[in-house]
Amino acid sequence: DAIQDGKLPIPEPTPVSGKLQLEIDAWRTQVSSHAHPYAHYLALVIWSRVHGLVSLEIGHQFPPSLTSLESLYRQEIHALMQQISIQ
To answer: Rounded to two decimals, what is the model's pTM?
Structure first.
């Protein structure tokens, strides 16, 4: 919806190309989605990054000195928003 409403710009050139484009198109077909391929790309990237943080936290893989995980999560979400031009 954000793409359709012009609130989420699609970068040019789009980061979705080549084999990744074909795979995302197959995914869109599998789930009968009419969303823009870039929306699917963002969903994949955001889920991957957040899932990685959660997996590291659950697995106790962060350095013991890193005690402010809330700050890490906030910083990473802020970085994601900047990356995809949501301010």
So the answer is: 0.76
